[in-house]
Automatic annotation (TrEMBL):
Domain called AAA+ ATPase: residue spans: 214-395
SUPFAM superfamilies: P-loop containing nucleoside triphosphate hydrolases, Ribosomal protein S5 domain 2-like
Family statement: Belongs to the Mg-chelatase subunits D/I family. ComM subfamily.
Annotated signal peptide: none
Coiled-coil features, chain-numbered ranges: none
One of the record's GO molecular function terms: ATP binding
Protein name: Magnesium chelatase family protein
């Protein structure tokens, strides 16, 4: 006796999804299961989980020869989220579950007891299902809140395979099952930090505000204990909140990394802070099976903070040069390529020398040691950093005037509004994102205003990329000051901030 069944699922390459149809043909013969369509190891092992779960739920599976095809067959399939769709297709082949209209996708990992377990990447998988034309999505109970963040889908939660089969029309009355609990979403340590906690260092706070207003990259250099990390952790609080689409993309990247998604979208920009021992894969993404996003991708629409930046391997840091220009990262592996968004602000912090005391009168490092230490930050990378500022330790009697996060974020919001009006009709919303050629063609400045930059370019102390970036910083300064166009003073200040760290 033969039977045929199918079910819908999705596969991911990066954040992009492809609809996958699972076909099952059951026929008489020796009991054997073949899975075809480039299944990965986890998909191959699904046959054992599927048959055990079906038996534990008291359901009937085909007893003869079974062929399971995952189409498109040329696309590699990886992950355990195919389990539920494969099990339902098998039950349809045996007549337990009736066929449907092909508009219901199924995601979930099966336990041997038949319960459904959540899988990493539920949110991007749900988005991919909606883009593939699915109207309904069946997921484990622990993943229902995460999948419900996609408004185009009707989400059906099931604690077990039997409950999922009943939702799809099977004549079953499954017993109550304790669902697998969802992992708690992590707390964001930078959510409640106030800029008013920072004492002194007005120049560094001004630079932080300029960076936030224009989405500019920033390097802070100073001795240990000067407050570089303290400043960095307060930058997300003065950035504009994420849009709904940006928040959904950020949550999708976190979900794909295996992090539990929150019950509601977070509008606070992300803050990624990898350790200086981070490898290239952990920073830009990769993996031998499913390609996962790295810290640079997870920092999209937010901050990538590299503390003790010269301690990172130079080759790892230089991998950031391309995403800093393009706003995306493409990871190539033998199984294919995955592209992730990477429109982040780079925030670097460094000591001025190996001992950290250069400029305080207590440095014991030779000039050659200092040059070698800072030489780990390559010239091409630093050329992409718009702002460089010195952060000094607070001394008694220093100006103690403070600026709160609320005040700074209000100024940043007004500056962003001015930039958005100027860039209306383009795909950019901040001056730090505008390409140099577009800026020179549509927002030209008078030669007399650009004269300091032209002189620096002639002397070889400034590259053409550096000139464009200084002009963008000057536009941001004008926006913060409420002025229509940058003046020569703004240009001079932008040039000084670009060369603010003595060698």
């Amino acid at each position: 006796m033969s039977g045929f069944g199918r079910a819908e699922c999705v596969a991911l390459m990066g954040l992009a999804g492809v609809g996958v149809q699972i076909e099952v043909h059951a026929s008489s013969g020796l009991p054997v299961v073949h899975i075809v369509g480039l299944p990965g190891p986890a998909v191959q092992q699904a046959r054992h989980r599927t048959w055990s779960a079906i038996a534990r739920m008291g359901l009937t599976a085909p007893s003869g020869r079974v062929v399971i095809n995952l189409t498109p067959a040329s696309l590699p399939k990886a992950g355990t989220h195919f389990d539920l769709a494969m099990a339902i297709a098998v039950l349809r082949a045996s007549g337990v579950v009736p066929p449907d209209d092909g508009e219901t996708a199924l995601l979930g990992e099966l336990g041997l007891d038949g319960r459904l377990r959540p899988v990493p990447g539920t949110l991007p998988l749900a988005r991919a299902a909606a883009e593939a034309g699915m109207r309904r999505l069946v997921v484990p109970s622990a993943s229902a809140d995460e999948a419900a963040l996609v408004p185009e889908l009707r989400v059906l939660a099931a604690p077990s395979l039997a409950h999922a089969a009943a939702l799809l029309g099977a004549q079953l009355d499954p017993d109550p099952v304790e669902p697998v609990p969802a992992a708690p979403a992590p707390e964001r340590a930078h959510a409640a930090l106030d800029l008013a906690d920072v004492v002194g260092n007005r120049a560094a706070i001004d630079a932080l505000e300029i960076a936030a207003a224009g989405a500019h990259h920033l390097l802070m250099v100073g001795p240990p204990g000067a407050g570089k990390s303290m400043l960095a952790m307060r930058l997300p609080g003065i950035l504009p909140p994420l849009t709904q689409e940006q928040a959904l993309e950020v949550a999708s990247l976190r979900s794909l990394s295996g992090e539990p998604a929150p019950a509601a979208l977070e509008l606070l920009p992300p803050f990624e802070h990898p350790h200086h021992s981070a490898t290239a894969v952990s920073l830009v993404g990769g993996g031998s099976g499913t390609i996962r996003p790295g810290a640079a991708a997870r920092a999209s629409h937010g901050i990538l903070f590299l503390d003790e930046a010269p301690e990172f391997p130079r080759a790892v840091l230089d991998m950031l040069r391309q995403p800093l220009e393009s706003g995306s990262i493409t990871v190539h592996r033998a199984a294919g390529a995955a592209t992730f968004p990477a429109r982040f602000q780079l925030l670097l912090a460094a000591n001025p020398c190996p001992c950290g005391m250069f400029g305080t009168g207590e440095c014991t490092c030779a000039p050659q040691q200092r040059r070698r230490y800072f030489g780990r930050l390559s010239g091409p990378l630093l050329d992409r950093v718009d702002l460089q500022v010195r952060v000094d330790r607070v001394v008694p009697g220093q100006d103690d005037s403070r600026r709160s996060t609320a005040d700074a974020s209000a100024r940043v919001a007004l500056a962003r509004e001015r930039a958005a009006r100027r860039l209306s009709g383009t795909r950019w919303t901040a001056m730090g994102h505008v390409p140099g050629p577009w800026l020179r063609r549509h927002l030209p400045l008078e030669p007399s205003v650009l004269e300091p930059l032209e002189h620096a370019l002639e002397r070889g102390t400034l590259t053409m990329r550096g000139l464009d970036r200084a002009v963008r910083v000057a536009w941001t300064m004008a926006d913060l000051a409420g002025e229509e166009r940058p003046s020569r003073t703004h240009i001079g200040s932008a040039l000084a901030l670009r060369k603010g760290i003595p060698a």
